[in-house]
Task: structure prediction
Amino acid sequence: MRKILSSLALLWGLSAAPALAANPELLAHIQGIDDPARESRALQISSLALDADVVGALAELTLTARFENPTERVMEGEFSFELPAGAVVTGYALDIEGQMVDGVLLDPLRAERTYEAQVRKGIDPGVANVSRGNVFSTRIFPIPQVGSRTIRLKFAAPVHPQRGLVFPLSTAAAVGELAVSVRAFSLTEDPVLTLPNAMPFEWRRGSEGSTAVARLGAVPLAGEFRLAPVHTKLPALSSRHSNGERRVHIIDSTERANTRRTTGGSRLRVYWDRSLSRGGQALGDEQALLQKFIAQSKPASIDLVLFNSSGASVQRLAAQDLGAALGAVAYRGATSFEVLGNLDAPQADQCLVFSDGVVTIDSRPDFRPGCEVFAITSAADADTGFLRRLTGDPSAVLQTGSRSENEILARLAGGGPRVVQARGEDGRALRFVTLDAGPSGWSVITEQPVSGGIILGIAGLGDDVVERLYSPAGARKAHFDGAGALWAADRVGLLAAEDGAHADFVALSRRFSVATPGLSFLVLEDPQDYVAAELAPPSNYPKESLAEYRELKTEYDAGMREAKDGRLDVVLERWHDVVKWWKTDFDPKAERKAAPPAFSAAPRRGGSGGGGNEEMAEVVVTGMRASRSASMAVRRSVVGIATPDIDIQMEEWNVARPYLQALDAAAPADFEAVFAEQERQYGQLPAFYFDVAEWLFRRQAATVAAREMLLSAIELPVSNEETAFMVAERLQRYDDMDRAVWLYERAAEQTDYLPQPRRSLALALVKRAGSRSDKQARADLQRAVRLLTEVVMTPWPSSFDGIEVVALMEINRLLPRLESLDVRASLDWRLRARLDVDLRVVIEWNTAASDMDLWVDQPDGERAIYNNPLTAIGGRLSNDMTEGFGPEEYLLHHAIGGRYRISVNVYAADRINPNGSTVVTARLFRNYGRANQAEQTMEVELHKADKGEKLIGTFEVQ
Result:
């Protein structure tokens, strides 16, 4: 589905994303610009081909789509396809100069950013993602004027013995041609096949199996693809994956299923996730199911555990009171299972966990509640990998949308067979995954033993585990990826749910070519693009291009080695310039430079800067510590150093939102009711929760309510890494440093190709160290220096030049504290210099391909600006960051008296995403690097049409 940025500016005029109405669906963006005004319906699906290979009760499908652009404008295509239940994407390809080129698996954030960077350059890229709701989506650019592009999607899916394989095929616009081909192997009879628009076909039998072919032309599609039921010829089929590994699919059934008697008297504990994301799920169905189970099992006691990021509470309830208790739950905050770690709850025999399992905050510890655990969810996008880890039994994860109520109740009562172990005849344990086979069957995919058969241990057929021996037979199809892909997808889900297993998760995903919400497919055009992205081309990359890639990669690796070897010399030269500046005695009465004039924008490459003497546009400021302009004068002196009196004036928090006005007008007792009404209108985007959290914070300080409201933002479907960064920044102000560090840790892990997340994590660790014991502080500070040193010593792309100087200022500020804790920093002695200053300003922002400028207007009338980085009185600006994120820094060793005006100039927004807002974080320091250092932080939200100068605040120096 379409990516929706977590943009504060999008709050106005947007509601929640609509449900997928068509399948497949094709949208277009003119010139690749993600702007509702640039959307177009001009693209057409000129052909759609669906090929399916069914082997026993598994299927492998290929969907090939060609998009036609009949217009004279270059388009970006956005194609989405709702996958059948249990399906896993195994391949994606895009045509490059007439040849289909496979995608390479990459983490989604890097894939998306690499794709967008290529779009900005007008170069052919394609990116494909899979959502937790099992929707495949791809973006392709460019689709040339009066031209076409072709994509190919491969996926594997289980075929349920009764329900079969089903997915909709319906379009609003006509499809030029639909071609369907189905081949069936290892079945006792031809399956029942239903196609859209009642397409005619007939099964034709051959020596290998049966084939059905159908075609339809130039009409909108209406209906579905349905293959059901299927009757497998053999209970155990062995197939070889394209990577050479074999897996065995075993599907069997019996009517001798045993149901556990429900005698009553058991103790029941119900875990009910009350995080924000749960509010949009089918909670009525979950509650009805729970009430029926209680009526059926008649537990002796019921304990309800309500939990979210704010903690967990336990209450003993009678069965008749449970509905009212659940009906009164307010769904807010983030999903955390760590809060259950030290829960003091009465003993229970059976535990039911109602949650989607999508953990958004805190680590994911092992869950050992001391009872039999079942996980129940109504969420289509549930993290079943984590829920399987919670229960320890794949068959104990029950989704209301994919199973009937009676099936779930039978499973909760202990009914129905389930596989609990698999081993070879040689005794070696085999890793296996289970699939849904109905109430009286079992379906598993296992590793294949070197020789001999497979023994399954099956519970639910009697009082004891029953063992059955299966002898695998080879599938007629030479290569079939379905069994291996579905086996790997299950294992990948478990690894994704395990903290610290990211490398194993990526390795297994690539081994079986399995795309998940944690890995996306990316296709690039030129060999140079793969080199720049540090990504190896796919195996089917054209031979000539592959040879060119290897040559370029050899040159690139040599250049990187040279850059690493020479990095210290580069950094020393840049740091020497800063030290030399700091030692220079600038004349405080020096005549200011004539150009550029004060309060004007200097000309710049690619265009002219905004600003001038025009009136400043509205700016929304959030994040100050006080509701009024902060005024905090410093009148102390460092030993041996005379410091001036410096007063900081920050712009007042002036968010004018209708929901905040409604909360202002409400009586305290009416808060919940008024908030609920405003949330229904405005709660689709993170901005609402950021603003209400700040509203609460200003009235109640760092309360649980403010933090809970803030953490709600990362639960929304549209939240992304930008949202997480903003939440982490606010958490530092709301005195929740552990969670701020946790969010930065995750961001740094996901974006190891960027220096900014490392720096943000390091600064958060430094701040946390200030309130910890010496031992804990030592560990935090050591890690912070190590991260900042990586920022300094890594040869980043030239667009990040200057960040090493900013990081060195921050490392050197830490050295005295490290020495007091007897910690040695691994920093070259030539880079050690404690450069204290009267004034320091640092800005950073949260969007790529955007250019924000730090401007400082000094009391003498001179402006420090990108083309005037060193002023007459010694004001020094760091390197101009023109391609996103920052930081940019202003330093002044000795400040002259008067007023310093700090502002941000919005020079350039992202061309392909003009609607995405940028949030600038500004930090103003007085007496930086001294004992009386003080800091003020604020955020400036830049609106869609903002250009030019935005006031941050002022320094008043006495």
